[in-house]
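Figure 2 data, in text form.
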Amino acid sequence: MKNLIRIIVAVISFLGLAHSLQFPRNADQTRWALKSCLREARPPRSLGAKWRELTLPKNERTFCFVQCLWTYLGIFDEKTRRFNTSAIETQFISRGSLSPKSLHTLKGQVKGKTCKEVYKFSIDFLKKYKSEFRHVFYLTDQTSLTWYSQNRGKVKGRDEKASSFCQKESNECERLHCRFYYYRLVDEDYKIIFFRKILIYGISNRQFNQCREEADKKNGCNVAKAFKECLEKIDNEKVQNAMEAWDYVSQRYA
């Protein structure tokens, strides 16, 4: 079983699927995905409570929450409009569950560019495997808290700021990478997370993405360093303000 997981993970990494994110995902990463999608959608409390349990009523707000969750979990690619079914299989197997028999229903390309199309394409799968999906992706309080307890000190605490946790790193470059990782700007492989929806007031989308592309050419912690330096050249004050805001968010939502 362990060898099978290693093979699947290696194939995913080699093909560059799922935005280069590693699978299986851990509870810290999936918690960020869920909480970030909730924060971005800002649903009424009653609807948000349903979403947390993967009860997904048919309405416009839910459609885009579903697309956001798939995307931030690293499974749905908004550019290719395809699901990384190998990643889902890896997540299920790594958590002791069998590969979903209905996984084939997520293969192929989602037609159309709307959130509704993603919802329609995937809702039957989510309904059928709701309990297992929440378990294998640590989307229940019990599975999440257990994982954090088992990994205390190794990962940022649930209510800890990234800047505080990352002080343990040996040098400033690695500390910056650590912070940018928890701000979800870079991944565990030192690569830019391009699908992350984030803006800095006063810096245009074009400028922000140009800095992403420039930084992604670097290696190791220099990716985060180059990204920050590129943005600072545009407007240093706004970047510092943004980092303070991201640090606050890392404590509450990531």
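Caption note: The chain has two domains: 27-143, 160-251.
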